[in-house]
Amino acid sequence: MQIIPAIDLLEGRCVRLYQGDYDKSQVFSNNPADVAKQWVEEGATRLHVVDLDGAKAGKLVNLTAIEAIVNAVPVPIEVGGGLRTQDSVRQLFNLGVEWGILGTVAVEQPQLVQQLSQEFPGQIIVGIDARDGKVATRGWLETSEVLAIQLAVQMQELGAASIIYTDIHRDGTLSGPNLEALRELANAVNIPVIASGGVSSVTDLLSLLALEPQGVLSTIVGRALYTGDISLKEALRAVGDGRIQDIPPNLDFSTFA
Predict the structure, then answer these.
(1) Element spanning 15, H or E
(2) Cβ-count burial of 160 within 10 angstroms (0-12 exposed, 13-18 middle, 19+ buried)?
(3) How far apart, in whole angstroms, are the C-alpha atoms of residue 69 and residue 148?
(4) What are the residues facing 195 on neighbouring strands?
(5) What is the CATH number of the domain that holds 200?
(6) Of 40, 80, 195, 244, which is most buried with the most CB atoms under 10 A?
C-alpha cells in the first residue's frame, strides 16, 4: 500500500487541523518545501498537498508554497483545496502538479469534473469528505445532503481517476480510520480509493492493507507523521512501497491515479 504524507497549507505554513476545524490548527513548519524534502528523503513516493486557505476562499491561495514544493522534490504531487474552475486546475498543472483534487465542485458542478477528466485523463481525483456519511463542502464548513457512496459512483461515471475518502470525524484525531465506510465505498466503485483520516499507527496501516483487495490502494497520513506516532520509514517497511503486485479482478486500472 502506498503511503502518501499530507502537507496542509495555511497562510504559507505547514499545519494540521483537528476534525477540519480552522480554529484548531497546529503549526508544524514555516517552510513546507523542507517538510516535503523530509518525507521524500524518508521514502515517500507521492505527496498530498491541501490549500486550506483555498478551500475556504474558493480559489487557490498558497500557490507560492505549492510551487516551492513541486520544485523541491522529484516525486509526483496531488493538490486540492479551492479548485473550482478549469483555469485553477490548469494553473496547477502548469506548475508541475500531477493530480488535481476536486471536492466542492463534485457536488455543485459535476459537469466540471467530467470536462476536466476528459481534458486531463488520469489526472483528476475527486475528494469525498464525509460527515456521518454525508458529503461536506467548502473547506468542510458546510454539509450537503449528498451521500458519499452515491457521489463516488457518479464521479466514477463522469471519468474521475480515483477517489480520496476522508471521514471528517476521524481526521486529525489519531483515532483510527473508518474501515467500514471505506469498505462500503470501495465495493461500490471500480476505480482506486485512497483512504484519509485518523491513521495513528502501523496497526491502522495494516488494517487498511487488508482492504487492498477491495481497491483501497493508498492512504494519506498526516498528524501521526508529524507527532512521531508513525515513522514513515518503519511504515513503509511494514506495508510496502505502493507497487501493485496482486490486482483485484474487478478493479479498473486504466484510470489509476
Answers:
(1) strand 13-18
(2) buried
(3) 31
(4) 165, 219
(5) 3.20.20.70
(6) 195
pLDDT at site 245: 43
186 assigned to some structural domain:
yes
Taking the alpha carbons at both ends of the chain, their separation in whole angstroms is 13
79 DSSP β-pair partners:
49, 100
Identify whether 119 is part of a domain. Answer: yes
Residue 134 lies in a domain: yes
H/E segment holding residue 9: strand 2-10
Q: Say how many domains are in the chain.
A: 1
Beta-strand relationship, 134-137 and 124-131: antiparallel
* Residue of 219, 199, 221, 202 whose CA lies nearest to 211: 219
Residue labelled with grid coordinates 457512496? 149
Please indicate, yes or no, if residue 80 is contained in any of the structural domains: yes
Q: 164-222 pLDDT, tens per residue?
A: 998 886 655 567 899 999 999 999 999 999 999 889 999 999 999 999 999 999 999 99
Residue 173 lies in domain: 2-240
pLDDT 10s digits, 20-62 = 677 788 899 999 999 999 999 999 999 999 999 998 898 999 9
| pLDDT of residue 256 exceeding 60 | no
Give 54's contacts (C-beta < 8 A, 6+ positions apart): 60, 61, 62, 81, 82, 83
Phi, psi of 15 (to 5 degrees): -135, 170
Question: What pLDDT does residue 248 have?
Answer: 44
The residues that are catalytic are: 8, 129
| Three-state DSSP state, 74 | coil
Distances (CA, A) of 238 to 40, 42, 201, 227, 232: 17, 14, 11, 19, 10
